Amino acid sequence: MKDLRLYFRLVSVSIKSQMEYRASFLMTSFGNFLLTGIDFVGVWVLFSRFGKLKDWSLPEAAILYGIINMGFALSEAVFRGFDTFDRMVKSGDFDRVLLRPRNTVIQILGQELQMMRIGRFSQGLAVILWGGLKLKIFFSIPCLALLLFAILGSAALFSGLFVLQATLSFWTIDSLEIVNTVTYGGVETAQFPLSIYNRWFRGFFTFVIPLACINYFPAHAILGKKDVLGYPEFFGWVSPFFGFAFLWFCFKIWEFGVRNYKSTGS
Amino acid sequence: MNPYLSIVLTRVKMLLQYRVAALAGISTQLFWGLIRVMIFGAFYEKSGNQTLTFSECVIYIWLGQAIFAMFPWYPDHEIQAMVRSGNIAYELSRPIDLYWFWFFRAFATRAAPTLLRSFPIFLIAGLFFGLKIPSDFSHLLGWLIATLGGLALSASISAILSISVLFTLNGDGVTKLFPAVAYIFSGMIVPLPLFPESWQLFLKALPFSAFLDAPFKIYIGKVSNDEFLSILAHQAAWVLFFVFTGKFLLNRAVRRITVQGG
User: Fold this and answer.
1) Exposed, middle or buried by CB within 10 Å (0-12, 13-18, 19+), for B49?
2) Are B180 and A39 in contact (CB under 8 A)?
3) Cβ–Cβ contact B184 with A under 8 A
4) Looking at beta carbons, which residues of chain A come within 8 Å of B31?
5) DSSP state letter for A197
6) CB-based contact (8 Å) between B100 and chain A?
7) In this predicted complex, what is the ipTM?
8) Average pLDDT over residues A152-173
9) Residues B100/B29, Cβ–Cβ less than 8 Å
10) Measured between alpha carbons, how far is B254 from B5 in angstroms, rounded to an integer?
């Protein structure tokens, strides 16, 4: 409880400081909106050229696109401290965090809530609203609830990846760009139905990093689609849970990393 | 030695040291290329008959990945830092033309990582992932020449991005939006021939087709000699345009410059 109060204090300071530069905030948010929204232009061009992607239409793909982009934007905003954690290890600032009698995770999360990510979030929202209105899925409460569950699940999954990236920097000191292939690459991958990829790739994004669980399966449940991979429909109603399980697992690895942390000594 | 040539050479030499970063870049690009090949494969499955065949599309994707580092992604970070710290004063006192100094810096900054990354990508994608090497050597040579033209274009755009920092100080805004526009309209996300027919003329006229799309057409041998010359002319026209705009903006900026900091 105390930790939660501390988190809100830290975050409100972070937001206030970002709002001091209001023009910069508006510009970068708008830039983020366009920069990430351009991906959807690409998706649109492909569908207008080819008509369909296997048995997926553009509005259906828009649901996949919206879930993953909104989830990723939330995660980028809230877990910013973990995304840039390598700087803390390099500078030795993490030692200070350890000295304070407060939860380390809360302190790192509290460093920054990056507001400009609202750009990606709102383009994802716009896309999903468009797709959802076309498909008329917003009139069912269970569908809406599942959509929210999937978005939060995907935020949790990407947050887990950020935590993992931060944990690796305990050993590598530098940030590992290679993690970008599963974060940004994951977003890129999940904008399209997972069934189009080959087997090893699908397996990796289902069982190692449960990307399929937070958008492919729930999208089937929401759209009432039959899965060509043969997973039962009810699975989509519960699968976003694996996003949270993944985050929990990553925090366990993080704790292991913290126990073995050796300061860079600078 | 010519000062501009030595700027390029020393900077390339310096940047060639970042081999670990290049390794990360190469694996990212390979991963990215693979995803895109699978995505396009799925789209092509049902309707193969397109303005671009699937195997051409695969070549397009891999050429794009190979020259990824060439793009005018951001202004020169060092110039950006100099504008903020006030060290820009040193730049202004150099006995060479500031514009060309920055232009050739940008050229080297784009050329070095592209050199480091493109060869392994060519090799791996060529051996395993369907990047065919042209049977006619002249096509390869033509592609190389046009890609060099693209590099010059990228340097002239990068220089403008750096110059824009003199006006905005923080380098937000234009410097973020311009690369995004360049990215999609160059064909990096979706090959330009797959865009709607009505857009084609417009896409071709934009400067960004000079990065990837025009060199690609030379690579697969779809270009006659006359068309080859018109591609180079298109590139040269845009490079000149950006160089003059850059010089003009830099002149104005230098006249009203405020050196920050103390």
Assistant:
1) exposed
2) no
3) yes
4) 181, 185
5) S
6) no
7) 0.88
8) 91
9) no
10) 24
